[in-house]
UniProtKB/TrEMBL annotation, chain A:
Any GO MF annotation of the entry: phosphatidylinositol-3-phosphate binding
GO biological process: cilium assembly
Pfam short name (any one): BBL5
Organism expressing this protein natively: Drosophila melanogaster (Fruit fly)
UniProt-recorded name of the protein: BBSome complex member BBS5
Major localization listed first in the record, in broad terms: membrane
From TrEMBL, chain B:
Main location: membrane
Keyword GTP-binding annotated: yes
UniProt gene name: Arl6
GO terms under cellular component: axoneme; ciliary membrane
Localization per Swiss-Prot or TrEMBL: Cell projection, Cilium membrane; Cytoplasm, Cytoskeleton, Cilium axoneme; Cytoplasm, Cytoskeleton, Cilium basal body
Membrane topology label: Peripheral membrane protein
GO molecular function, one term: GTP binding
Official protein name in the record: ADP-ribosylation factor-like protein 6
Keywords attached to this entry: Cell membrane, Cell projection, Cilium biogenesis/degradation, Cytoplasm, Cytoskeleton, GTP-binding, Lipoprotein, Magnesium, Membrane, Metal-binding, Myristate, Nucleotide-binding
GO biological-process terms attached to the record: cell projection organization; establishment of localization in cell; system development; vesicle-mediated transport
Pfam families: Arf (PF00025)
Residues annotated to bind GTP: 24-31, 73, 131-134
Binding residues annotated for Mg(2+), in chain numbering: 31, 50
UniProt organism field: Drosophila melanogaster (Fruit fly)
Stretches that traverse the bilayer: none
Lineage: Eukaryota, Metazoa, Ecdysozoa, Arthropoda, Hexapoda
């Protein structure tokens, strides 16, 4: 039934879509906000926002995705813009006075972006006209996601000689799964070659030298343009071409024997393909959770500012302010010779102090005699 | 007129590409079954454990072009299965009918597949192969169906048949059923889409 007439293609690798979303600033691309990249997710929507610099007067919507910020006008379909997080230089919020509506103060998000040596300034103003929104952190998700983006560099970009290996073990990122660990991999970047290990995960391929674990490379599948096995002067080698955004390097690795090389190659191409369909950019953010956390924090702060009597414990510091009274009475006791029956007491070794001492009489503790100066009496028990 | 429409639809579907996912535990015979469908000149005599997955392309007798994704059944590669669910039209689930010990694992993995969000609300026909029927201690297809509680699968068409990937016995029958079911499913989807677009107007 299924006898094939001709196989159409073998195990061909699809070329991954080049990741530009986070690395460019774009204006007025048709249907921009509807064409998100695979793996790109909208993490928060902020409504009633105006692009005060470019399109004043148009109310629009700000979309915070895991790769960029998109603003699009809800009045005119063709006006929109996209700012990749990698291009953002500076962000803050300010209070601006809207020119039209009788100088109402409202919150605005200021973004400075640098793209192709051009500096762009953006000012997104809240035009809802609600005074309650002025004091709310309506742009909090932008800052949160931007910080998360900066912290998840390793998911998306090539990293050379990073602190990614500790004690011979790869430091695993959240959501990362290790598929295999291959030892005895020669990196053919230099003439003598470097012996090291591969760690293959669902997000990236890591190689590190056995002799020096700071000599390493963390290569996400996103930055791999092609994988192939090729004959080299060192024998069959795994050749990885990194994408333009990943430096455009050609990396060669040798694995013995050839069967293992082939197995590794198949594994990598499978994972590369799967990653291409379901990329993971590493940013996990839930706007509702974040809002709840923010509310809880502000509530706590509000509570902290109100002084409540039950929250405080009254401390009697009278005794502590004087020089240790117990010591005085102890010394007095010794002078008066109140315990003549014992006479000269034999010294004993005290573990806590580390030397021999006179045994302490009844009713006294070492702590009472040792803490001469007034303290909070919190030293050793 | 309606007849003509249906005919046209059928012809259109024949040009369509169908994607079949081949799943199952390691050593159940997935690659061997795929190997059997290949042209005799391209068949390999030794089948090695698959790493990751392999994609094979076939034309069936009736002119359907079929892309079969042969997934690896090894434990560490099983989490790659789910990435292919979205784009598949049919599933072949291969079971080693002589490996009674791992029937629980087969059941577990099958449940995971059926409950996946990319599959649970779609009509995706599933073909079960009780493979290795030539082995002495192999179970019959009825017994396998009972062991895996296949009768509980209500929302998807399924079919089970015994097969032997070495001799090729039983393979053709199953695939014929699967292709027919995939056609039905596609037709239904198209009709549903049509009626939806009519409603929206």
């Amino acid at each position: 039934m299924l006898k094939s007439l001709a196989p159409i293609e073998g195990n061909q690798q699809p070329v991954l879509q080049l990741l530009w979303e986070d690395k460019e600033v774009k204006f007025d691309v048709p249907q921009l906000h509807k064409n998100l990249r695979s793996g790109e997710r909208v993490l928060d929507y902020i409504y009633h926002i105006e692009d005060s610099k470019g399109n004043p007067g148009d109310t629009g919507r700000l979309m915070v995705t895991n790769l960029r910020i998109i603003w699009h006008s809800l009045v005119h379909k063709k006006y929109n813009l996209s700012i990749g997080y990698a291009r953002i230089g500076n962000t803050n919020t300010r209070v601006v006075h809207m020119h039209s509506k009788a100088r109402i103060a409202s919150q605005a998000l200021y973004i400075l972006a640098v793209s192709n040596e051009t500096r762009f300034e953006f000012l997104f103003t809240d035009v809802s006209g609600e005074t309650s929104r002025r004091d709310q952190p309506i742009f909090a998700s932008v800052f949160d996601v931007y910080h998360l983006y900066q912290r998840t560099y390793l998911y998306r970009d090539l990293k050379l000689r990073g602190a990614i290996v500790q004690a011979g073990q790869l430091v695993i990122l959240p959501d990362e799964e290790v598929f295999s660990h291959v030892q005895g991999v020669w990196n053919l970047s230099s003439d003598q070659g470097n012996l090291g290990s591969f760690v293959v995960t669902n997000i990236r391929l890591v190689w590190f030298a056995d002799a020096n674990e700071t000599f390493n490379i963390s290569l996400p599948y996103l930055q791999i343009e092609s994988l192939r096995v090729r004959e080299s002067k060192y024998g069959p080698a795994l050749v990885i071409q990194t994408a333009e955004t990943g430096g455009g390097y050609v990396l060669g690795f040798r694995v013995d024997p050839a069967e293992r090389l082939n197995e590794l190659f198949k594994e990598l191409s499978s994972l590369h393909t799967v990653y291409g369909e379901h990329p993971n950019f590493g940013i996990q953010y839930n706007a509702n959770d974040a809002r709840r956390r923010l509310e809880a924090a502000s509530e706590e702060a509000a509570q902290a500012s109100q002084i409540k009597v039950d929250n405080f414990e009254e401390l009697d510091e009278r005794q502590e302010r004087e020089i240790n009274t117990k010591l005085n009475s102890y010394l007095a006791e010794g002078c008066l010779g109140k315990v003549p029956s014992q006479g000269e007491r034999a010294p004993v070794y005290c573990k806590e102090l580390g030397f021999a001492m006179e045994p302490i009489g009844d009713g006294y503790k070492l702590q009472d005699l040792w803490n001469v100066m007034p303290t909070k009496m919190e030293t050793m028990e | 007129m309606g007849m003509l429409h249906n005919l046209a639809d059928l012809i259109k579907i024949k040009k369509d590409k169908m994607t079949i996912l081949v799943l199952g535990l390691n050593n159940s015979g997935k690659s061997s079954i795929i190997n059997h469908f290949k042209k005799s000149s391209e068949q390999t005599s030794i089948v090695v454990p698959t790493v990751g997955f392999m994609v094979e392309q076939f034309y069936s007798m009736s002119g359907v072009s079929i892309k079969a994704i042969d997934m690896s059944g090894a434990t560490r590669y099983r989490n790659l299965w789910e990435h292919q669910f979205k784009n598949c039209h049919g599933i072949i689930y291969v079971i080693d009918s002589s490996d009674r010990m791992r029937f629980v694992v087969v059941k577990d993995e099958l449940d995971l597949v059926l409950q996946h969000p990319d599959l649970c609300n779609r009509i995706v026909p599933i073909l079960f192969y009780g493979n290795k029927m030539d082995m002495e201690d192999s179970l019959s297809s009825v017994k396998i169906a009972a062991a895996l509680r296949l009768e509980n699968i209500k929302d998807k068409p399924w079919h089970i048949c015994s097969s032997s990937a070495i001799s090729g016995e039983g393979l053709g029958e199953g695939v014929q059923w699967l292709i027919q079911q995939m056609r039905f499913a596609m037709l239904n989807n198209k009709n549903a889409a049509k009626s939806r677009s009519k409603h929206s107007k």
